[in-house]
Amino acid sequence: MASLQMAALLSAPSTPVPSDRVRLGALRLSASSSSAARNGGALVVRSEAKVSGGGASARGLSLITHAVAEKAAAASSADSKPGHELLLFEALREGLDEEMERDPTVCVMGEDVGHYGGSYKVTKGLATKYGDLRVLDTPIAENSFTGMGIGSAMTGLRPVVEGMNMGFLLLAYNQISNNCGMLHYTSGGQFKIPIVIRGPGGVGRQLGAEHSQRLESYFQSIPGLQMVACSTPYNAKGLMKAAIRSENPVVLFEHVLLYNLKERIPDEEYVLSLEEAEMVRPGEHVTILTYSRMRYHVMQAAKTLVNKGYDPEVIDIRSLKPFDLYTIGNSIKKTHRVLIVEECMRTGGIGASLRSAIIDNFWDYLDAPILCLSSQDVPTPYAGTLENWTVVQPEQIVAAVEQLCK
Amino acid sequence: MAAFSAVKIPPPQFTTVRSSSQRPGSSPAHFAHSPSAFNSISFGSAKSVRSRPLFAVSSDVVSSDKTKPASSSAFIVNCDMIWRSRLVHCLVVAVTREVALELYEDMVLGRAFEDMCAQMYYRGKMFGFVHLYNGQEAVSTGFIKLLNQSDKVVSTYRDHVHALSKGVPSREVMAELFGKATGCCRGQGGSMHMFSAAHNVLGGFAFIGEGIPVATGAAFSAKYHHEVLKQSKPEGLDVTLAFFGDGTCNNGQFFECLNMAQLWKLPIIFVVENNLWAIGMSHLRATSDPEIWKKGPAFGMPGVHVDGMDVLKVREVAQEAIARARRGEGPTLVECETYRFRGHSLADPDELRKPDEKAHYAARDPIIALKKYIIEHGLASESELKSIDKKIDDVVEDAVEFADSSPLPPRTQLLENVFADPKGFGIGPDGKYRCEDPLFTQGTAQV
Fold first, then answer.
1. Calpha distance A318→B110 (Å, rounded)
2. CB–CB of A158/A150 below 8 Å?
C-alpha cells in the first residue's frame, strides 16, 4: 500500500488509538496505514494520482474539467503496487457487495437497481448474484418505497434505498424527515432504522435544474439523520460499508461527475468512520473545508496557490452531519483562517451551518472572517457557460484565499 | 438465491362485491341493522353513486389467462364463493362464548379508555391533538384479535385502541398520553405516535398515508424473512395490518402501496376505516368515486366492503383476508363502513355532521349490538357482561392512577434515542464523541 505508507510518513507522528474510536472491519490494517485511526496529527488519505506537498505535478488534478480520471497510471507501476484499481462506482458496488455477502439482511431497493444494474451501474450484477428480492426493482414511487425501506428497517432488515438522482428523493422527503429521522425518537427508542439512503446529486454536465440539486442543505435540519458525502473511490467504499453497518439512518451523497474517478484501493477490508473528516493536504496558511466534487476544484486551486507561495490545508469534511469539529478545530487552531468551498446554494447550505459551528466553537482562533464560497442561489441553468458560473470554480477559490491571507 | 422475480401477475379471477351487510338474515353474524349510509342519509350524491355501474370490477379484472397455477384456481373458487355468494353459511363459524366475551371485553376496553381520555383531556392531564376512536371499536377488535403476537399493526393518529387491542397495556398507553416517562414511548411520542416493539405496533403516524408505506415495508420484511432468510413459520407469513381512513384513500401513498403490495404479493391487509368524514370534509365531497373497495381490483387485489359496525362480520372478513395473506396470496383491501361518535379530535366542534346521521350510527353501536347478540344466543348473561364492564372500568382507573403517579421525563432523557448509535451526534472540538460529554448525558449539551 505504497500510497498510504507515503501518506503515513508525511503525517504527524501517530499515537496509539483506542480501539473504540476506530471503526474498522474484521481485518486489521497495518498501524501506519490505518486510515481510520484518529491520531494526534493529520489524517491522511491519498488517492494514487495525487501527491502531497509543494507543487509537484499532479496529473489527477486535471480531472477537474474532465471528471473521468486520466488513465495516467502507467501500466508498469500499476502491477507492482498492492491493492486494486477501480472506478468510484465500482468501489461503491464492491462495498455494497461485501456487505450483502456478509449480512443477509442487507438489501437494495430502488428504481432500476436490479435488472438494469443501476442507472450509474452501482448495483450492476448484484441482482443476478442475490436475487430479485434482495435487489428490488421498485416502481416509480419514491415516497412509498422509501417508506417501505423504513418499515423493513424497523422489522429487521437493513435496506439500502437508492434514489436514481438525489433530487428524486424530494418526493420521499416526507418519509425521510418524519419517519427516517424521527421515528427512533418518537418511539422512545423501540425501533431502530438502520437504513442507508444514497444516490447521485450535485451539478452535473448540463443536466438541467431539477437533476442538479444538492439535497444536503435540505436534509441537514432533520434530527436523527446522519449525512456523509463521498469523494474518492477509497472513501466511497469505506463510507458505504460504514453506513450499512451503522444503526442510524444515513444519507450517503454521491456526485454524478465523480463516478468515473479511478483510484487504487486496498484489497483488505476496511470501514471508515462516518463522523470523521479527511485531511487531504496538510498546510499552514489557511484551512479550506470542502466536500464532494468541490474537493477537486479546491485541489486544482491548491496547485495554483502553492505556485504562488501559499500553503493551504485542505480538509474534506466528509461528514456533513454531524461535523467533525475535532479535525476542523485542530486545523483552525493552526492556520487561523477558514475558507469553506461547497456546491450547495448559499442560503441555508452546509457552509452556512459549518460557519456558525466554527464561530460558536473556535471564534477565538480566527484571524479573519470565515469566507464561504457556495453555488449561486439560482436553479442550475442548462447552458454550459451559465452552469459553470453557478458553481465555484478554482479561480474563485484562489482569489478567496488571496483575500483571506492578505 | 431467492427465486422471487416480479413477473407480470395475472389478475385474480374473482369479482368483488358489495356490502356483506346486505346478506340475508339467515347468517348468524347478521345483526338487525339499518340500511347502509349510502342510501339512508340524504347526501345529494348518494343516489348517483349507487346507480353508477360497477364497470371496473368484472370485465377488466377477470382475465382470460389460462395459465394460472392450479392451487390458486382452487382458492379462487372458494374466494369467489365467499365474496360473491350470499350463501356463506358453511364458512361462517359460529362464535364461541370465549371468543364473544373476548371481543366484548376488547371493545368495552376501547370505549372506556377513550371516554376516560376525553375526561382527562378536559381536566388538563393530556394536551395536543387527541383523536378518539369511539364507535369504530368493531374494526379494531374484529381484525386485531385474530392476529398473532408477531403480526404487525400500523395505524394513524387514531391509534389508542389499535394499540390496546394488540395488547399494549392500558397503563402504558395512558402514561404515554400523559407524557410520562413510563409511557410506551417514554413520553416522547404522545397520542399520535403509539409504538410498541414488544407487541409489534409500528405506530402511530401523524400525517395520514405516512404509515401505509411503513406497513408495506413490514410486509416486505415478512416476505423477505421467509424467502431470503428462510425463517419460515408453520402458520405462514407474518401479516401486517395497515389501518387508515377514507381521507387517506385519496392520497398518493395509498395508491403507490396498493400497487407495490399486489405486485410483490405482500402479506398486508389495507383496512380502510371509512367513517365518512375527514375532519370536516365529507368523503363524498372529496372523492370522485366514493366506493373505496373498488380501488382494490383496479390494482389486481380483492376489494371487500364490510359493515364496520358489526364486529362479527368484520371478523369474518378479516379471517379470510388474513388467511390469504399468510398463505402468500397477497394483499386485500377491506373497506369498513364505520363511524366515529365523537369529533375528529377533542378540539373539533363537530358542527358539520348532521344529527340524524349521528343518530343512525349511534343506533348501530357495535358494543350494544354485540351485547344483544351474546344475550340472544345465550353465550353469557347480562350480569357477566356487566362484570366485564366493571372490570374494564377498574383497568382504566388503574391506568389513570398509574399515569398520574408516574414521573415526568427527566432532562437526561432529552438527547437519548435521537440516534440508535449516539455517535451520530459527532465528534466535539475536544476530540471526543459528543455522546461521551458529561453534559450530554445530562441533556444539556449543545449538539
1. 50
2. no
Q: Which residue of B260, B420, B429 is in closest CB contact with A192?
A: B420
Q: Do B6 and A132 touch (CB under 8 A)?
A: yes
pTM for this predicted structure: 0.81
Which one of A130, A131, A154 has the shortest CB-CB distance to B214? A154
Catalytic-labelled residue, pool A48, A111, A184, A211: A211
Provide the 3-class DSSP secondary structure of residue B50. Answer: helix
Is A142 catalytic? The answer is yes
Q: Which residues contact B32 (CB under 8 A, 6 or more apart)?
A: none
Pick from B419, B435, B437 the residue to mutate for testing the A interface (most A CBs within 10 Å): B419
Q: Which residue of A has its CA nearest to B220?
A: A152
Return d(Cα B210, Cα B218) in angstroms, integer: 13
pLDDT averaged per 10 residues, chain B (length 447): 39 42 38 34 33 32 37 36 38 78 97 97 94 97 97 97 97 97 96 97 94 98 97 95 97 97 98 95 96 96 97 97 96 97 92 94 96 95 96 97 96 92 93 88 77
Using an 8 Å CB-CB cutoff, list chain A residues near B189. 186-188
A99 catalytic residue (yes or no): no
Nearest CA in chain B to A146: B213
pLDDT in tens, A283-311: 999 999 999 999 999 999 999 999 999 99
For B217, the closest of A150, A274, A360 (CB atoms) is A150
Q: Looking at the predicted complex, does its ipTM rise above 0.85?
A: no
Taking CA atoms, A346 is separated from A85, A221, A392, in Å, by 36, 15, 11
Please return the burial class of A2, using the count of CB atoms within 10 Å of its CB with bins 0-12, 13-18 and 19+: middle
CA distance A121 to A277: 27
Task: Break chain B into its structural domains and give their ranges.
Answer: 3-81, 97-400, 417-447
Q: Do A149 and B217 touch (CB under 8 A)?
A: yes
B97-400: which CATH number, 3.30.1360.120, 3.30.565.10, 3.40.50.970, 1.10.10.10? 3.40.50.970
Give the separation between CA A271 and CA A250, rounded to whole angstroms: 15
Per-residue pLDDT of A76-86, as tens digits, reads: 555 578 999 99
CA distances from B385 to A239, B237, B309, B382, B389 (A): 61, 35, 19, 5, 6
Give the 3-state secondary structure of A233-248: HHHHHHHHHHHHHCCC
Interface mutation target, options A17, A148, A168, A197, chain B, most CBs of B under 10 Å: A148
